[in-house]
Amino acid sequence: MRIDVISLFPDFIAQCAVFGVTGRAVERGLLSLHGWNPRDHAQGNYRRVDDRPFGGGPGMVMLIDPLRSALNAARAADPRPVRTIYLSPQGAPLTQAKVHELAGRERLLLLCGRYEGIDERLIAAEVDEELSIGDYVLSGGELAAAVVVDAVARLQEGALNDAESAVQDSFEDGFLDCPHYTRPVSHELGSVPDVLMSGNHGDIARWRRQQSLVRTMRRRPDLFDESALSKADRKLLEQ
Ligand code: ADE
């Protein structure tokens, strides 16, 4: 998969390709990351990329033309169809289901804004989808783009080692993940739950499912979908 990112700070995005699971996905040829700086597509001595907002008010708005030229250059760099996504707090919330959909595409083009935003005409004409990583305001789309890159990279076939399998992640089945423990069994901060030491795989699976359901109910009642519960789940919740 190929991801292109339009950003005034393309070095920030390049760092994604250096560390951890994303770095490994790049190393294994499962993902390629390309940054494009709209300043390289701006005109004049000052290479302006922004201007004051019509109607007044604080901040600056990113100009149409440098962004459009950078978008077109990125699109032309590879013949495969590409989905253009603008990261902004006005976007639809990014979910694990959305991440799966994006991870299945051959190409993504992520557009990062700075300042007060981007001229709305560019968004209307060039953007397929607007996504937000949460109900808070970042000073630019770069961190949000890095979130998308990471979440999508780890779902590429072969990016995770067996031990890191994504199947049991939080949200994969609609519920939060269960707690995890490792050595030592006994520690001044507490002991590992007996069931995990029992060797009984059925009991362990049931305990994990129960923990996962109870956590979701308590911490994220907004996610807790009663209708997704099986008969066995209901029994676990009664215990
Ligand atoms: N840019 C600024 N804030 C953002 C957010 N919450 N999500 C995505 N992009 C953003």
From TrEMBL:
<dbReference type="GO" id="GO:0005829">
    <property type="term" value="C:cytosol"/>
</dbReference>
<dbReference type="InterPro" id="IPR016009">
    <property type="entry name" value="tRNA_MeTrfase_TRMD/TRM10"/>
</dbReference>
<keyword id="KW-0808">Transferase</keyword>
<comment type="subunit">
    <text>Homodimer.</text>
</comment>
<dbReference type="InterPro" id="IPR029026">
    <property type="entry name" value="tRNA_m1G_MTases_N"/>
</dbReference>
<dbReference type="InterPro" id="IPR029028">
    <property type="entry name" value="Alpha/beta_knot_MTases"/>
</dbReference>
<feature type="domain" description="tRNA methyltransferase TRMD/TRM10-type">
    <location>
        <begin position="1"/>
        <end position="225"/>
    </location>
</feature>
<keyword id="KW-0489">Methyltransferase</keyword>
<dbReference type="Pfam" id="PF01746">
    <property type="entry name" value="tRNA_m1G_MT"/>
</dbReference>
<dbReference type="GO" id="GO:0052906">
    <property type="term" value="F:tRNA (guanine(37)-N1)-methyltransferase activity"/>
</dbReference>
<dbReference type="InterPro" id="IPR023148">
    <property type="entry name" value="tRNA_m1G_MeTrfase_C_sf"/>
</dbReference>
<comment type="function">
    <text>Specifically methylates guanosine-37 in various tRNAs.</text>
</comment>
<comment type="similarity">
    <text>Belongs to the RNA methyltransferase TrmD family.</text>
</comment>
<dbReference type="GO" id="GO:0002939">
    <property type="term" value="P:tRNA N1-guanine methylation"/>
</dbReference>
<feature type="binding site">
    <location>
        <begin position="133"/>
        <end position="138"/>
    </location>
    <ligand>
        <name>S-adenosyl-L-methionine</name>
    </ligand>
</feature>
<keyword id="KW-0949">S-adenosyl-L-methionine</keyword>
<keyword id="KW-0963">Cytoplasm</keyword>
<feature type="binding site">
    <location>
        <position position="113"/>
    </location>
    <ligand>
        <name>S-adenosyl-L-methionine</name>
    </ligand>
</feature>
<dbReference type="InterPro" id="IPR002649">
    <property type="entry name" value="tRNA_m1G_MeTrfase_TrmD"/>
</dbReference>
<keyword id="KW-0819">tRNA processing</keyword>
<protein>
    <recommendedName>
        <fullName>tRNA (guanine-N(1)-)-methyltransferase</fullName>
        <ecNumber>2.1.1.228</ecNumber>
    </recommendedName>
</protein>
